[in-house]
Write a structure and sequence with these properties.
- Belongs to the TRAFAC class myosin-kinesin ATPase superfamily. Kinesin family.
- Keywords: ATP-binding, Coiled coil, Cytoplasm, Cytoskeleton, Microtubule, Motor protein, Nucleotide-binding.
- This is Kinesin-like protein.
- It is found in: Cytoplasm, Cytoskeleton.
- GO terms for molecular function: ATP binding; microtubule binding; microtubule motor activity.
- The chain is of the alpha+beta class.
- Helix 3 crosses helix 6, helix 6 packs across helix 7 and helix 10 crosses helix 12.
- The chain has three domains: 104 residues; 140 residues, no CATH class; 317 residues, Kinesin motor domain (Kinesin, 3-Layer(aba) Sandwich).
- The strands form four sheets. Strands 1, 5, 6, 7, 8, 11, 14, 15, 16 and 17 form a ten-stranded mixed β-sheet that branches. It has a three-stranded antiparallel β-sheet with strand order 2-3-4, covered by helices on one side. A two-stranded antiparallel ribbon has the order 9-10.
- The structure holds adenosine-5'-triphosphate (ATP).
- Adenosine-5'-triphosphate (ATP) binds next to helix 11 and strand 13.
- The site of adenosine-5'-triphosphate has 19 residues, from helix 11 and strand 13.
C-alpha cells in the first residue's frame, strides 16, 4: 500500500517537473512573440511620421504600406494566434500543476485491497491471541501440576505414616472402635491419594498432549512456525491458518474447560486434604480448634466498619495486617452468618464421647465482646441457644435412645472463677447456708488417680431431664458476675465452668463408665483503656487478664513441649489441667471480631489458638468392670457407716 502510494507520488513529481519545464518554455516563447509585436508596432509608428513629410512618398508609402502591411500583417496575425495558443497551453499547465499540488497535499485515495490481505490481518491478530493464551495455559498447567505433585507426596507420606502406625503392635490390639477409626481414616487417605494421582495423570496428559482430545499441540507449533516466517504468501496459506485457528480455538475452549474442572477438583481436593489432615490430627489426640467470626457490631460499623478478617475456606481464615495478609488454619471456620445449630452440629460428636465415658472439654476463648457467651450460652432471650443448653438437650436425647441398654445418672456442678476465687453457683444462698450443716464449703480443685479434675466441696446436683439441667443452669446464671463495659453491655466478669458428669451402667455386662463434660465460657481478655474499666472493674479486669496470661503460659509450654507446664500458677489453669495436655477430648472455639479496629486482639487470639492446635491430649475412656464398680460401691457404703452383706459381692 505504501509502496503503491510512493510510486504514484514519484509519477506525479516527474509529471510536475516536465509540466514546469514546458511552462517555462511557453513563457519564453510568449516573451519572444511579444518582443516581435513591440518591434513591428515601433516600425509602423516611424513610417507614419515619414509619410507626413512627403505625400508622394506618402502615396507610395500608402501604396506600399498595404503590401508591407500584408507582408508584416501575416507574421503578426500568426504571432497573435500563437500567443493565444501558448497562453491557453500555459493556463492548462498551470491548472495541471495546481491539481498535482492538491493531489500531493490531500490523502491518497483508498486503494482497493484484495480480500485475502484483509483476512490475513485478522487471522494474524487472532493467531497471536491464541498463541499467548496457549502459553498462559501451559504456565498454569505447570503450576497446578507442581502443586498437585507436592500435595500427592504429602498425602502419600501421611498414608505411609498412618499405615505404619496401624501396623504397630499396640495399635493392632486396640479396641474395636479405635481400629474402626484407623481403618476409615486409612480408606479416606487412600481415596485422597488416588484422587491426587488421577489429577496428576490428567495434568501430565494435558501438558504432553497425550490426551486424545487435545493431542493436536502440533497445530500450535505449526501455526507458530508459519507466523515465525513472517508472511503468509498465498490465499491457501491464509485458509490453512484460518482452519488451524478454528482448531486452536476449539482446543483452547477444551483446555479452558479442562482447566476449570482441574481447578475445581484441586480446590475440593485441597479442602478434603485439610479435612483428613484434621481427622488424623484429631485421632492423634490433638486439641481441636474452631474459629468463629462474629458479625460486625454496631459500634464497629460506626467506626467505619472496615473488615480485616476473611474466611478463605472451611478450614482457613485470613487477616489483613499492615504487613500483608496472614493466614491461619483451624479444624473449622464459622463466619458471621453461621447459625448456632451449624456450630453445634460439629460439636455433637463430643457429647456422645462424654456419655461413652470420656472426659470432654469445650471452651470459648477470645477478647471481650467477641462472642464467647453467645457461642456457649446463647442470646439473653434464648432465641439462639448456645452450646450449653443444646448440650443439655443432646445428653438427654442420647440417654433416651440408649435407655434399653444402659442406666444413666446425670449430675452437675457449676462454678465461676471471679477475682481468682472459685465460687459455687449452685450453693444455697448465704442465709440458708448458715442453717445447713456442712453447706457453703470451700471449693477446691483436685485430680483423681486417673488425672480427671474435679471440684471438691462444690454442690453437685442430679438432673433427670434436660429441663432440670437447664433449671440448674439458670439458677447458676442468676448468681454470676456480669456488668456493662464500654466493649460489651453484658460483659462476663468471671470464667464460667459448667461440669456435667454422666455415669452409665451397661445393663448387659454391668460395666460402668463415667464421662465428664466441661463447658467453659472464659471471661474476655481486655485492655483497660478500651473497656473504660475503673475501680473494682479494673480489679476484675486485672484478675481476668492474669488468669488468661497464666492460661497462655500453659498453652505455650504445652505447644513447645517443655518439660514443665505451669498449671499451678492460676486456679483457671488448675481447673483446665485435664483439658489442656491431659486426658480430655478438648475443643476450643476461638471467637474473633471481624473489625479492623480489633485487629491486634484478633491476631493475638488467633496466634494462641494456633498454639492450642499443636497440643496433644491423651484421651481415655473411663470404664470399670462390674466387679470394680461393685467394690467401689461397697467402699462408699462402708465409709458412710452402712453395713455390707456378703451377697453384695
Ligand atoms: N455469632 C453472633 N451472631 C450474632 N450476634 C453475636 C454473635 N456473637 C456475638 N454476638 C453479639 O455480640 C455481643 C457480644 O457478645 P458476647 O457477650 O457473647 O461476647 P463475649 O466474648 O462473651 O464478651 P465478654 O468477654 O465481655 O463477656 C452480644 O450482643 C452478642 O449477642
Amino acid at each position: 500500500m505504501l509502496e503503491l502510494f510512493c510510486s504514484r507520488l514519484d509519477v506525479l513529481h516527474s509529471h510536475q517537473a516536465s509540466t514546469l519545464q514546458e511552462l517555462q518554455m511557453a513563457r519564453q516563447e510568449v516573451g519572444k512573440v511579444q518582443e516581435m509585436l513591440t518591434a513591428s508596432s515601433r516600425e509602423q509608428r516611424e513610417e507614419e511620421e515619414e509619410e507626413a513629410e512627403s505625400s508622394e512618398k506618402k502615396t507610395r508609402s500608402a501604396e506600399q504600406q498595404p503590401a508591407a502591411c500584408s507582408e508584416s500583417g501575416g507574421p503578426l496575425e500568426g504571432a497573435a494566434a500563437r500567443l493565444e495558443g501558448l497562453k491557453e497551453s500555459l493556463y492548462q499547465k498551470e491548472r495541471e500543476i495546481t491539481e498535482l499540488l492538491e493531489a500531493q497535499r490531500s490523502p491518497a485515495p483508498p486503494v482497493p485491497q484484495p480480500p485475502c490481505s484483509v483476512l490475513l490481518k485478522g487471522v494474524i491478530h487472532k493467531a497471536h491471541a491464541v498463541c499467548s493464551a496457549a502459553a498462559e495455559t501451559r504456565a498454569l498447567l505447570d503450576r497446578m501440576s507442581e502443586e498437585n505433585r507436592a500435595a500427592l507426596v504429602q498425602a502419600r507420606d501421611e498414608l505411609d505414616r498412618l499405615q505404619t502406625a496401624h501396623e504397630e503392635p499396640g495399635n493392632q490390639t486396640a479396641g474395636r472402635e479405635r481400629v474402626d477409626e484407623y481403618e476409615s481414616a486409612l480408606s479416606l487417605l487412600e481415596e485422597t491419594v488416588r484422587g491426587f494421582e488421577v489429577s496428576q495423570l490428567a495434568l501430565d496428559c494435558i501438558k504432553t498432549g497425550e490426551s486424545p482430545e487435545i493431542n493436536d499441540c502440533d497445530a500450535v507449533s505449526e501455526l507458530e512456525d508459519i507466523l515465525g516466517r513472517g508472511t503468509i504468501p498465498t490465499a491457501d496459506g491464509v485458509k490453512s491458518v484460518g482452519q488451524q485457528l478454528l482448531l486452536l480455538q476449539d482446543q483452547l475452549k477444551q483446555v479452558k474447560d479442562e482447566k476449570k474442572k482441574i481447578v475445581e477438583n484441586y480446590t475440593s481436593e485441597r479442602t478434603m486434604r485439610k479435612k483428613y489432615y484434621n481427622m488424623v490430627e484429631d485421632m492423634k489426640g490433638k486439641i481441636r480448634v474452631f474459629c468463629r467470626i462474629r458479625p460486625l457490631s454496631r459500634s464497629e460499623a460506626a467506626q467505619g466498619g472496615a473488615v480485616a478478617v476473611e474466611k478463605i475456606d472451611d478450614y482457613s481464615v485470613a487477616v489483613e495486617t499492615p504487613r500483608g495478609p496472614r493466614e491461619f488454619q483451624f479444624d473449622k471456620v464459622f463466619v458471621a452468618e453461621a447459625s448456632q445449630e451449624q456450630l453445634f452440629q460439629d460439636t455433637n460428636r463430643l457429647i456422645q464421647s462424654a456419655i461413652d465415658g470420656y472426659n470432654v472439654c469445650i471452651f470459648a476463648y477470645g477478647q471481650t465482646g467477641s462472642g464467647k457467651t453467645f457461642t456457649m450460652v446463647g442470646d439473653k432471650e434464648q432465641k439462639n441457644p448456645g452450646i450449653m443448653p443444646r448440650s443439655f438437650n443432646a445428653i438427654f436425647d442420647i440417654i433416651r435412645d440408649s435407655s434399653s441398654k444402659f442406666l444413666f445418672k446425670v449430675s452437675a456442678y457449676m462454678l465461676e472463677l471471679y477475682n481468682d476465687r472459685l465460687q459455687d453457683l449452685l450453693a444455697p444462698p448465704a442465709a440458708d447456708a448458715m442453717a445447713l450443716p456442712g453447706a457453703a464449703r470451700r471449693v477446691e480443685i483436685k485430680r483423681n488417680r486417673k488425672g480427671v479434675v474435679f471440684a471438691q466441696g462444690a454442690e453437685t446436683k442430679e438432673a433427670s431431664s434436660a429441663q432440670e439441667l437447664y433449671a440448674l443452669f439458670q439458677q447458676a446464671g442468676a448468681n454470676r458476675h456480669i456488668s456493662a463495659t464500654k466493649m460489651n453491655v453484658e460483659s462476663s466478669r468471671s470464667h464460667l465452668i459448667v461440669c456435667i458428669m454422666v455415669e452409665s451402667r451397661n445393663l448387659t455386662n454391668g460395666s460402668v463408665s463415667t464421662g465428664k463434660l466441661s463447658l467453659v465460657d472464659l471471661a474476655g481478655s481486655e485492655r483497660a483503656a478500651k473497656t473504660g474499666a475503673k475501680d473494682h472493674q479494673l480489679k476484675e479486669a486485672n484478675s481476668i487478664n492474669k488468669s488468661l496470661s497464666a492460661l497462655g503460659d500453659v498453652i505455650s509450654a504445652l505447644s513447645a513441649e517443655l518439660p514443665h507446664v505451669p498449671y499451678r500458677n492460676s486456679k483457671l489453669t488448675q481447673v483446665m489441667q485435664d483439658s489442656l495436655g491431659g486426658n480430655a477430648k478438648t475443643l476450643m472455639i476461638v471467637n474473633i471480631s471481624p473489625s479492623e479496629c480489633n485487629l491486634e486482639e484478633t491476631l493475638t487470639s488467633l496466634v494462641y489458638a494456633t498454639r492450642v492446635k499443636a497440643i496433644t491430649n491423651h484421651a481415655q475412656r473411663h470404664v470399670e468392670s462390674k466387679e470394680i464398680a461393685q467394690l467401689k460401691e461397697v467402699i462408699l457404703r462402708l465409709r458412710s457407716g452402712q453395713t455390707v452383706e456378703e451377697e453384695d459381692f
